[in-house]
């Protein structure tokens, strides 16, 4: 089964800048995939389109067979996205943020509270469940974003630079958390600047540069070329 299929995806911003010039990408169910590329290559634009924050100009996107244009709500149900910026209400508490997020998906309150407890515990945030989230450290806020993206139990999780600015110890524990999710069958795509992160976690990679995919291969093949 294909988790993500992207065909001829283009994005021209309002100022005329062509950020994506016809991206093709295939990620299989169960994969752990890295989207690599220099700053400005188009990684965040691609993720923005998947999370429906950015309107695409052309092309098609499917997540587990749900087409972004024809079935956006079906697509959203099987997709969790962790953007780079902290975009939760910093005055709300982690537990409440997760329960409210579950509400958007129509998840019953009792189930939502159970899942909030599960993910806050697994991500080491249970102690902080009732603290205003602006009080959390950067690494804690990042983990809160991951918990929020998981609350509806998506089959595909996409993370934009999940460990940027995170110290090495926390990075390692986030790696083992993500590896555990992948072993449970969740397909994961991440963007990263750290080649080591991609090397540790990912089986397949796509390299994007100037809005085009310039390489689509396995991690093993890539390392043999270096
Ligand atoms: P769209 O074409 O998707 O409607 P716009 O061109 O209207 O997008 O821009 C959306 C937002 O991104 C605007 O608020 C704009 O100020 C901001 N923006 C403009 N240029 C850049 C850039 N180079 N990098 C990041 N954000 C930008
Ligand atoms: P990456 O995530 O790979 O660093 P982005 O997708 O953020 O790349 O940006 C790709 C290109 O599109 C960059 O040159 C960026 O300046 C430009 N860009 C991003 N957002 C906007 C916008 N809203 N308006 C105009 N240009 C943008």
From TrEMBL:
Keywords: ATP-binding, Nucleotide-binding, Transport. The keyword GTP-binding does not apply. Residues 4-226 form the ABC transporter domain. Transmembrane segments: none annotated. The keyword Amino-acid biosynthesis does not apply. It comes from the Bacteria. One of its GO terms (molecular function) is ATP hydrolysis activity. This is ABC-2 type transport system ATP-binding protein. It comes from Geopseudomonas guangdongensis.
């Amino acid at each position: 089964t294909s988790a993500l299929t992207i065909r001829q995806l283009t994005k021209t911003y309002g100022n005329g800048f062509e950020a994506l010039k016809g991206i093709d990408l295939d990620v299989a169910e169960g994969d752990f995939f890295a989207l690599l590329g220099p700053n400005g290559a188009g990684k965040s634009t691609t993720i923005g389109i998947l999370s429906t924050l950015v309107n695409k100009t052309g092309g098609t996107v499917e997540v587990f067979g749900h087409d972004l244009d024809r079935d956006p709500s079906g697509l959203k149900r099987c997709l969790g996205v962790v953007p780079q910026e902290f975009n939760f209400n910093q005055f709300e508490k982690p537990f409440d943020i997760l329960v409210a997020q579950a509400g958007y998906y129509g998840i019953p309150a009792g189930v939502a509270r159970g899942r909030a407890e599960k993910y806050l515990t697994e991500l080491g945030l249970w102690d902080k469940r009732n603290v205003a989230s602006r009080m959390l450290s950067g690494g804690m806020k990042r983990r809160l974003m991951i918990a929020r993206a998981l609350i509806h139990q998506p089959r595909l999780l996409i993370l934009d630079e999940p460990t940027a600015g995170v110290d090495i110890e926390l990075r390692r524990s986030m790696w083992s958390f993500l590896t555990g999710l992948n072993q449970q069958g969740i397909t994961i795509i991440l963007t990263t600047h750290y080649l080591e992160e991609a090397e540790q976690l990912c089986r397949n990679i796509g390299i994007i540069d100037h809005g085009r995919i310039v390489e689509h291969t396995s991690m093993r093949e890539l390392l043999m070329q270096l």
